[in-house]
Design a protein that fits this description.
Length: about 250
């Protein structure tokens, strides 16, 4: 299932929000690994590396961008695939980040990829139903151009709102002040939320029109907001004085 969740802007927007919510300890921990690289830049790195010809990126890392949960199931009911998925990768990366003996290069990869996975799991079609490769096989047209449902949720539901990264930041800040914290730091919860939303977004016709994009604009914005808040909370716990790894449970 090719996976480019939220497109670059969605990842950047969620990461920019997360950056404003880091504790001093988390900010220091992130800086120690990433140096001057911003969280926004780090959040898109796992997608940018998909063109790297190494066997790691071409054969191993692809399945780590998503999970599969058939209708009527929850992730905890399932046996993870042999090649792993977003949940198993997140747990593995968490262990690396908590291992004081781990190589710096491995921890850098783990931090960048973890941030990306957390955000991916908030894109509803990155919790696939096992039938259509996360909506990639659902062919649609957007403004008369051929596309697929996965790509619509990668980019069109966001670009349709015509906001710059900065404008998105202001908008999500207003949403956050009016709608609770969403600090739930449980990956199984994020997956369940995406699976429920997934069932509501399949179009009744192949033409994606303005009405469809308008109808789902609020849900997409909420998922970006949740991704940003939870990314920060995840990092805050990883770099706390007593670090905690929810994905490792």
């Amino acid at each position: 299932m090719p996976a480019w969740a939220w497109g670059p802007q969605g990842h950047r927007v969620a990461a920019d929000l997360a950056n404003t919510l880091l504790t001093p300890e988390a900010r220091n921990g992130v800086s120690a690994l990433l140096g001057k690289q911003s969280l926004a830049s780090a959040s898109t790195w796992a997608d940018e590396m998909r063109s790297n010809p190494s066997s790691f990126w071409q054969e191993q890392a692809g399945p780590w961008h998503y999970v599969t949960v058939p209708p009527g199931k929850v992730y905890a009911d399932l046996v993870p695939p042999r090649r792993g998925d977003g949940m198993t990768a997140l747990a593995g990366f968490c262990a690396i980040l908590l291992d004081p003996g781990a190589a710096r290069s491995k921890q850098q990869l783990a931090l960048r990829f973890s941030l990306h996975i957390i955000q991916d799991l908030h894109q509803p079609l990155h919790v696939g139903n096992g039938k259509d490769r996360g909506g990639n096989r659902i062919k649609v047209t957007v403004n008369g151009k051929s596309s697929n449902l996965h790509r619509v949720w990668d980019s069109a539901v966001i670009s349709h709102q015509h906001r710059s990264d900065a404008a998105w930041g202001l908008y999500l800040g207003r949403l956050r002040s009016g709608q609770g914290a969403w600090r739930d730091n449980q990956p199984l919860l994020w997956i369940a939320e995406s699976a429920r939303l997934r069932e509501e977004i399949y179009p009744s016709q192949p033409q994606i029109d303005t009405a469809y994009l308008d109808r789902h604009a609020q849900a997409a914005a909420q998922r970006l907001l949740q991704a940003g808040i939870r990314s920060a909370e995840y990092l805050n716990q990883l770099f706390a004085a007593q670090p905690y790894c929810p994905a490792g449970e």
